[in-house]
Amino acid sequence: MSMDDQHREMINFRQSLIEFNELLKRSMSELQVQHERVSPLWQDEMRRHYDAQWEPLHNTMQHYVAMEGPSYVEFLSIKLHALESYLYGN
């Protein structure tokens, strides 16, 4: 694979990651709305068991949406800039 091919693949991957991050962010927001709607109606032992499993996943996903996802995009952008400087002398 040539460096030009690598550059193209990195651009495509970064764009796919941006789209994935936005879709995940919207999905998590929609899911939060649904949780808030059902929360007052669902208050039993099964709900407590569900929450014990849901909360760690939810916290991890929220952290990814807020911190890790944007950091990965920024990392790729920095690497792309370095590769473009190498390829095109900018």
Task: Give the helix/strand layout.
Elements: H1 3-38, H2 45-88
Helix pairs in contact: 1-2
Keywords, separated by commas or semicolons:
mainly alpha; about 90% helix
Précis, in short:
The chain is mainly alpha-helical.
What can you tell me about this protein's structure?
The protein is an all-alpha fold and 90 residues long. 89% of the residues lie in helices and 0% in strands. The protein contains two helices and no strands.
The arrangement of helices and strands along the chain is HH
Q: What sort of overall outline do the alpha carbons produce when their principal axes are compared?
A: rod-shaped
Number of helical stretches of at least 4 residues: 2
Amino- and carboxy-terminal Cα gap? 22 Å
Instruction: Please provide the count of β strands.
Output: 0
What structural class do helix, strand and pairing data support?
A: mainly alpha
Q: Can you tell me the residue ranges where pLDDT is under 50 for at least 5 consecutive residues?
A: none
**Relative strand content:** under 5%
Level of helix content?
Answer: over 70%
C-alpha Rg (nearest Å): 19 Å
Largest sheet: none
Instruction: Give the overall average pLDDT.
Output: 95
